[in-house]
Each structure stands twice: as C-alpha cells, then as structure tokens.
Amino acid sequence: MTISIGPLLPRLKFNNLRGDFFGGITAAVVALPLALAFGVASGVGPIAGLYGAMFVGFFAALFGGTPSQVSGPTGPMTVVMAATVAALIAKNPETGLAMAFTVVMLGGLFQILMGVLRLGKYITLMPYAVISGFMSGVGVIIIVLQVGPLLGYAATGSVIDSLRQYPAAFNNIDPVATGLGLLTLAIVFAAPARLNRIVPAPLIALVLCTLISVRYFPDSGIPRIGDIPSGLPKLQVPQVSWINLKDMLGYSIMLAILGALDSLLTSLVADSITRTQHDSDRELVGQGLGNFLAGLFGGLPGAGATMRTVINVRSGGKTNLSGMIHALTLAIIVLGAGALTEPIPHAVLAGILIKVGIDIIDWGFLKRAHRLSTKGAGLMYLVMALTVFVDLITAVAVGVFLANLLTIQAITDIQVKDMKAVTHGDNENWLTPRERSLLKAAKGRVLMFHLSGPMSFGAAKSISRRLAIVENYEILILDLTTVPRLGVTALLAIETMIKDALAKRRTVFLVGAQDQVHHRLQRLHILQKLPPNHQVPERIIALERSMELLRAYAATAEV
Asked: Residue 336, class by beta-carbon neighbours within 10 Å (0-12 exposed, 13-18 middle, 19+ buried)?
C-alpha cells in the first residue's frame, strides 16, 4: 500500500513495517546517549540534543530523499554550534542563545534553497583529501574539547581554551570523574561485536557508569546533567541583530554547507548498502526543513548520521518510516523519562564523545596519504590544521581552492605536453607520412601549431609562449582538430595569435574547428578574420593549399 501526500513529500510505504519499526527503535537507542552528549558539548544543554534528534530526525525522514537515512545531531554540526553559541553569547549575553537558534533556522533555510536550486549534485564534488582533512579535524576538535570534562572539568567552547586548560586539569584530576570516563571508554572500545549488535555499547556505558556513580559516589560532586525540561519544547522567537548579522549569516552558511555535505555523504553510504539511489535535492529540502524546525523549537542542528543509518538498515529499516519512528521514540523518552537522564555524569558523556571523535578521524587515509600523493597529503594536513585551529568554512574554502589549483595545474601540464609547434615534421608520429612530407618540403616556411584536448585558461600562457619561440615562418596552420572545448582565456589567446600573425602579413589556416569550438570562434568574430577557404576540416588540405601559396610566392618573387 502506498500513500502520496502532496508533490513535496515522498511516498510513505507500509510494506516493511516490522523492519522499519525495529530499525527505528534500534537507531533511537543508539541516538539517545549521543544526542545527550552532543547537547552538553554544544553548550546549549542535553535537552537541545534530544530536540534536535526529534525534529531533524522526523522531518528529514518525512521530506528527505534517502529512505533509509536516520538524521540527528552529529559531531561536525555540534562543533559549529558550540562555536556559534560561544561567540554570540560572548557578544550578546542576554540574546546570544536566541540568536544561535536563529542561526540554525537560517541554516535550514539555506539548505532548502540549495535543494530548490538543485545544487545537491555539486555538494559532494569535493576532493577526498579535503573531505578527509576536514572530517579528521572535526574528530580532533571533539577529542580536544572533551578531555577536560573526562577529567572532571567544565567544557570550553574552543580548542585553544581547552589546550590552555590542560596543565591545570592534569595536575588536579578528579579521580571519580576520570575513573567513570575511562570505564566508559573501556566499554565502548571493548564491547564484543555480538553484544554491540544487541545493545549498543554507548548505551551500555551510559547506563552502567551512571548507576555506579549514583550507587557508590552520590556525594562526589562530579558534574552531572542535572535537571532538564520535560514535556513539549517551547517556541524560540527568531532574534536578529544588525550588528551581528554578518556573523550570524556566516555561521548559518557554515551549518548549511556542513550539514549538506554530511548528509549527502551519508546518503551515498546508504545507497551502497541498500542498492538504492537517493534524491540529493529532495534530501537537502528535508534536511533544511528539519533544521529550521529544530532551531524554531530550541534544538541542535543535525544531518544524516552514518552510524545510525547503518544500524537502522542492518536492523531492518528500509523506508523513511524507520527514521520517523526513531524520532518519535526519542519524543516519548523526552515526554516521559526525562528524570532518568538527570544523574548522568558529564565524564561519561565525554567518554562517549571521545570515541565518536576517534571514529570520525580518517585513520585509513592518514596512514596511506603520503604514499598516494605528497601534494594530496599536504593538502589534507593543511585542511585538518585549519579546521582545528581556525574554522571549518575557512578550512573547506582554502582546501577546495588549492585542490582546484592543483587540478588545473595537472590538466594544464597534460595540455601543454600535447601542444606542438612544428616546422619540419621529423619524428612527429601524430602526423601522417604525407603531412610530414609536405612540411619537410616547406623548409620551415610553414608552422603547424597543434592543440589537443579541452583547452582551459591554464594553457593560454603556454600557447603564447610556444608561438613566440618560432618567428621565421610565412604560413601558420592552427590545428584544432582534436580540441572538443575552448575556455574563454584560451580562446582569447588564440585570437591574439591570429591577430599577431595577420599583423605580420602571414597567412593563417584554421583546421578542424567543430561544435563548441566553432561556435565560440564565430561568436567572438575570430572566424570572420579569415577567408572561408582558409577554414578547412583537415590538416592535409591546409598543407596542400599552403604549398600552392608558397609556389605562388616563389613565382611572384622570380618575376
């Protein structure tokens, strides 16, 4: 049975109810400790993590384009939210928190705009070295920020502040908090895979370590979650300050791009294990609606969560009902069992988050990057350092910019390698024997300038440099037979070449311009500079006509 609810909504399928139910419940069990931990780490509070998991999880599933995906607060989104909250509250103590939730709403609107503009297919077109460095940097940030809480100290909002806190924290370790945190780490790392499939290790650690802290250390004074609101969330009125508008837009764009990247990469993982194909633009709309409503009701921003998605699929979840059931299960917990989360120690949540941070780091690529490419490894480490010590948007922007420069350089090298300026034709195997014979007969008076492949702006300088090397020629044959595309800068370089040749009273033949190349040459009025019989489809024709002209020049000179 299939129900269609309007053009924006995916079809709700009920042919996998049992699998979707168990998948959603299992994903919710995994999401509970993570949502609480992310809420605390963000500086907003544990309830914000649960609200984010509820709203993003439900509406991203309902409106999104990846049926089996489970969404909610993630490590990268939490890192950005923590920085946003710290920065805005520092500047606006009274309204900073409301402004931070407004940033979440704006981020959601930007994601919806990305989906409407069909930008989904471009989001993941990012070099792996940049993605790897970025994700590893996020993992390092999470670990650095959570070492303090693991040792019994309050979390800070920045890497630098956390590092400054280390000497005092390590000299005055809280033994109870540290013991609980280390026990948490031991459980999440050492839990047998068979047990982990039945009950997730983070949940085992959360329950067991909390019970130990309550039973044996009730008066230790270690930081705990404490009272959290129960019942339905309250509406957060959007708060915009013109003075802080630039910062707010910057953070919202950061959340939107990061959430889109995080979600669509998870969508690719979901595709690979379910043998399906997601709709990236619809997914962005769903994520945007979820994040907008999360911000409107005081929740953390979220994205597609890889671990929760994989667990959902392995537990039987196949349709978007599983993600909605996951969110509804968390809503029931918020409504009826909030008191059970109050005694959870921060050190336990820190241990869970450190495991998350370690898992986020791309260890496989870190170990092998230098073997694959020195430049790629350098780019990855640069993005990683910028992510940790500057900010995520700067890291991604610089990484993509440098990656594009390296790519353009590599393409240009290939283009330049295939670029030929030939006057005699000896040892030029790309020419036919007849073409080599004609060039040899011309005795250097004919210059064959051969371009190959798509010509980008990177090749423009080499075009001019190659032509400047050869001055003593009477006829220029410009061979574009194997050029499928001309960039604007390369096109202008060719125009300059033709103009210079004509200004020096040299004859020019244009060979093999077709399709886009011919269209651009015509639009720029370059073809109009040459007689029609000097625009030919093959090199041999241009060479034969060149020889006729040379004989005519010789006859005229004799007279």
From this structure: exposed
